[in-house]
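Fill in residues.
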């Protein structure tokens, strides 16, 4: 079949576990070939949303389609056409890398005639060729992650779900992993990834911010940052704790945070953080420099204000 331009669509998706509302209201669209990030703190409902989209969990309410199939009526069809990688290493640790790939190739129905060629291609693409005969359980976290990604893509799915795939992985391995993700997207694979790492969020084409099971905002990283309307400056001040106390609580101040010897001041509604700091702190301000507003700034601001409003 031909895949739709919108490869994932949900409308008011929800999921309850007894009295617990894990997902309250998720409406989003994911387009073919994009890396779509679902961002949120632990317990926000990210993994539950992913499991509903994969056909593993039935929704309690709302609707969803994935690669053209309804997630409630055709979950098995959905599972055949996706790759899924969880935050925990879920492969067979007593098998070699090659044996894991061979097993998943059979599980996903890769034709026997092309199976060996496909395995060799994936081993080359992921840099696993030198470790093909190593027992998976003896690999480091970064290499295990590569094996899991290789197994999830062995059948060349049009859509790949990654549920917090870099949790507990070192920074170098995380960067290499994201390079692989962008290579997959460049050849047409759609990637939906959940994360709570803000630097990873900035590597996505578009993002959905989820908090307490609901979507707070959707857009490109730049769009989300711009809509939040924050301005940020980094200050060097005398007696930083006392200075922070003077600034906190002002209506223009969104956040005051310490980074080593630097104090970071974020302001709302277009207020100039440098002018505000000099007005309130006077001569205690030794130096000021403007700083880039990040996705993390926007997300933390959004979550805090939503929590206060609730």
């Amino acid at each position: 079949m031909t895949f739709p331009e919108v490869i994932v669509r949900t409308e008011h998706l929800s999921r309850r576990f007894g009295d617990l509302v894990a997902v309250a209201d998720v409406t989003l669209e994911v387009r073919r070939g994009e890396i779509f990030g679902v961002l949120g703190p632990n317990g926000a409902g990210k993994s539950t949303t992913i499991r509903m989209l994969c056909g593993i969990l039935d929704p309690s309410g709302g609707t969803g389609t994935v690669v053209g199939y309804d997630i409630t009526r055709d979950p098995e069809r959905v599972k055949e056409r996706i790759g899924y990688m969880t935050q925990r290493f879920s492969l067979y640790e007593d098998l070699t890398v090659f044996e894991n790939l061979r097993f998943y190739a059979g599980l996903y129905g890769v034709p026997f005639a092309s199976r060996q060629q496909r395995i060799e291609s994936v081993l080359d693409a992921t840099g696993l060729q030198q470790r093909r005969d190593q027992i998976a359980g003896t690999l480091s976290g970064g290499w295990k992650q590569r094996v899991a990604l290789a197994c999830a893509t062995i059948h060349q799915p049009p859509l790949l779900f990654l549920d917090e795939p870099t949790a507990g992985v070192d920074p170098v391995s995380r960067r290499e992993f994201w390079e692989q993700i962008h290579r997959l997207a460049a050849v047409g694979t759609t990637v939906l990834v959940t994360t709570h790492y803000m630097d990873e969020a900035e590597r996505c084409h578009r993002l959905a911010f989820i908090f307490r099971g609901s979507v707070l905002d959707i857009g490109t990283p730049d769009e989300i940052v711009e809509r939040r309307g924050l301005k940020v400056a980094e200050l060097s001040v005398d007696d930083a704790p006392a200075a922070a106390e003077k600034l906190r609580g002002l209506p223009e101040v969104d956040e005051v945070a310490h980074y080593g010897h630097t104090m970071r001041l974020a302001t709302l509604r277009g207020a100039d953080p440098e002018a505000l700091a000099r007005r309130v702190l006077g001569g205690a301000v030794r130096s000021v420099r403007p700083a880039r507003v990040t996705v993390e700034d926007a997300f933390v601001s959004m979550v805090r204000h939503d929590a206060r409003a609730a």
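Residues 171-186 form the longest helix (16 residues).
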